[in-house]
Amino acid sequence: MKSVNRRRAFAAVAAGAGLTLVLTACGGGDDNAGDDETTSSADCAAYEQYGDLSGKTVTVYTSIVSPEDQPQIDSYKPFEECTGATISYEGSKEFEAQLLVRLEAGSPPDIAYIPQPGLLKTIVEDYPDQIVPASEGTVTNIDKYYAEAWKGYGSVDGTFYAGPVGANVKSFVWYSPKMFKDSGYEIPKTWDELIALSDQIVADHGAEGAKPWCAGIGSGDATGWPATDWLEDMVLRTAGGDVYDQWITNDVKFNDPQIAEALGKVGDILKNPDYVNGGLGDVSSIAATTFQDGGLPIVTSGLCYMHRQASFYAANWPEGTDVSEDGDVFAFYFPGMTEDDRPILGGGEFAAAFSDRPEVAAFQAFLASPEWSNAKAKATPAGGWVSSNSELDPANLVSPIDQLSAELLGDTTQTFRFDASDLMPAAVGAGSFWTEMTNWIANDKGDAEVLDAIQASWP
After folding, report:
1. Which of 97, 202, 218, 269 is paired with 413 by a 20 to 30 Å CA distance?
2. Which of 432, 422, 430 lies closest to 116 in space, CA to CA?
3. 312-321, 353-362, 420-429: range with highest mean pLDDT
4. What is the pLDDT of residues 253-289, one digit of tens each?
5. What is the DSSP string of 265-302?
């Protein structure tokens, strides 16, 4: 579904970790499949390559928590039913910090979903004896079903460690189609139209206590990352893809005037008390509000009209919310400076292994397979998840927002860039960038001070 051929080429040399999976009958399927009448020997045919894993357990550690965790857990059921393995899932809002704590203690999970390639590089450099190169089955699946760029994102110094387990579009603005219709508002096509719409909402509804925008950047130890997405999206719009690429490598500094200009435009929205934080509080409340709760006033109180957040936010709307173009809530493309300038910011997670046990190697390979991508799509009826696996059946993307994501990502005329903070060194991308953007909101720290502090932390 996801066309990434247009992305910058990342050199990657496949390096398999050594375990060839034995072709056997569908081991474990007899015991577990009996509990689920929908599982048959035919359904298990694709799983025969993984062998009989009865009695084996694989631990999975991720940053994906409720309510987004249940589709993950459900998507593992075919693997469990057909191989006999048990997948033990744990999600944590403190994932980035706690994963490093576990590695330092020598007790890593079997599989970790790493959302930042920069963090993957740090782990490879600091804990080379714990992380293992991708399994042979994973290498085979990535080479067969994914565009080359994705292999590069999961590689460090030419060795491939982690295959993608999801992709997302971050350049979205969520809104209520009904509220827009009732007020006669049109979807903005440019940045100036977006600001004009914001001003119009203030004029029309400010007396009612409603605001154009609501936001939340709280995320446990990862608090601040939603604010970094705002800046990344804006750098793409004001400075362009080439500057964005140089920013990632520190050839363009954080305190460069081009980055400062982008931060100023983000501040035109997030630090404007007339614009935020609808239904939640003042500007500082953005830092105290979790990202999961940030957009909820659109549907719970009607005091917020717009919320910039990624496609995966679809999973956070209250149960029963109609997420569709004519429903309770939907999303439009976060506009560029002109109608013809339509850059896309995206991200994803990568499954890294910390053990080469047969069951771990098998599960990592499964996560790179068409079987898992389609199982995950079917397990995510609320939407908010797409895969870059070329064999994902679009019919399984039942959510209109996922279909819109696929449409946007499939447009090769647009500039696509992976989340910058995810590609930066972890000390910056998962450290100072998060904390300083939080200070920018919570403590009203000045633009120049924030950018100087982040730049000073670059290793």
Report:
1. 269
2. 422
3. 353-362
4. 999 999 999 999 999 999 999 999 999 999 999 999 9
5. HHHHHHT-TTT--TTT-STTHHHHSBTTTTTTHHHHTS
